Amino acid sequence: MIFTFILYNFILIFGTLFAYMSTLIKEIRGKKLFVILSFLTLFVPAALRYGVGTDYLGYESIFNEILYTGSIEKTEPFYGLLNQLVIFFNGSFHWVIVLSSFLTFVFVYKGVVHSKQIFLTVLLFVLLLYLYAFSTVRQSVAIVISMFATFRLFNDDKALKFVFCILLGAMFHYSALLMLLVLPFRKLKINLLFGLGILVVFFFLGKFLSTSMLNSPLLEATKYGGYASNKFGEETEIGSGLGVFLNILPVLIVMTLVGWRFEDGREKFFLFNLGLIYLLTKILALNIHILGRINEVFGFVPIILIVYFVQIETSLRLKRITLFFCIFCYLILFEKDIAVNTIDIGGGLGISPYVSIFSLI
To answer: Which one, out of 91, 147, 218, 359, has a CA that is 20 to 30 A from the CA of 251?
Structure first.
């Protein structure tokens, strides 16, 4: 486990350090070199992992089924095609891990271009989504494509490009279609008090709303309908609640500051409403386990929210205090995830201890 802690923290430190170094160099080749080094710091350990991630064996089972039957009906089209591509070239399942990891981090760094905050974006991605990507391969590709699409939408407000990217993400995991909710919500003029009021109502009615969603014909019509009758349809075990508190508080604070300090306009309502959607889905996830998959679709929202808050907020002191607090909270959660999400418990992320393919030699 000591090696695992060292490795994941090495990725955190050097992945962000190389990203930061790229911002200090004016020469284009130098910038690209450090961006590539940052990319490789994240990509190589993810690509070389073996048996790491709760769903690793499940994805291997999907690969073997496609290998022996040739059918991709049980998975999303592009993920199925990715497996078929590997099989066509006589590759092993591990190449699916390599290629899916490559796709994941390519879209992360493509999104960085639009965020204009490479250091902060990479730092927050590692803290919030890097370990998660080890477990949910298909959904992670869909999530980072959605993140890339949302960065672009915030900058150019071109809905058609956004829809195209979301549909692309949905070809890896259908849950990405939920991101289409952002389009109508992004321009709603929800003020701070009304938004906080919605959160309070959702908090007290969360259990009722979660149960209603779980038993709705809409959910039953999807592949998640079967989860309602098994352990994934049970109430979420919150435990001490400290992790939930540290997860929610940064978004709540930044969202509140956006609603309070930013001038009315497209940027304010886009960010505020995005944060609101994230917190509402988080409340649903706190009540029913499987509804956490809905919140996971919006898992990149804290990155978008914090990056643009730092970029737009005019008070340097407030900006620094808020950013330090957010990073502190997420760093605690990052270290906790390494410690508690062990492979042997058969749940959680299953990312510790880290094992590479070289262990097979």
So the answer is: 218
Do residues 286 and 269 touch, judged by C-beta distance below 8 A? no
Residue 351: closest CA among 330, 334, 329, 332? 334
- Cα-atom radius of gyration of the chain, to the nearest Å? 20
Report the candidate in 73, 70, 17 with the shortest Cα–Cα distance to residue 41. 17
Which residues lie closer than 8 Å to 147 by C-beta, 6 or more apart?
107, 108, 111, 300, 303, 304
Q: In whole angstroms, give the CA distance from residue 262 to residue 319.
A: 13
The structure's pTM equals 0.90
Judge whether residue 220 has pLDDT over 70: no
- Residue 101's Cβ-count burial label (10 Å; 0-12, 13-18, 19+) is buried
Q: Which of 45-49, 194-198, 253-257, 343-347 has the lowest average pLDDT?
A: 343-347
Phi-psi region at 241: left, alpha or beta (left = phi > 0; alpha = psi -120 to 50): left
Count CA atoms closer than 13 A to 295's CA, side-chain side.
22
- Residue-wise pLDDT for 292-306, tens only, equals 677 889 999 999 999
Q: Is the pLDDT of residue 251 over 70?
A: yes
* pLDDT recorded at residue 294: 78
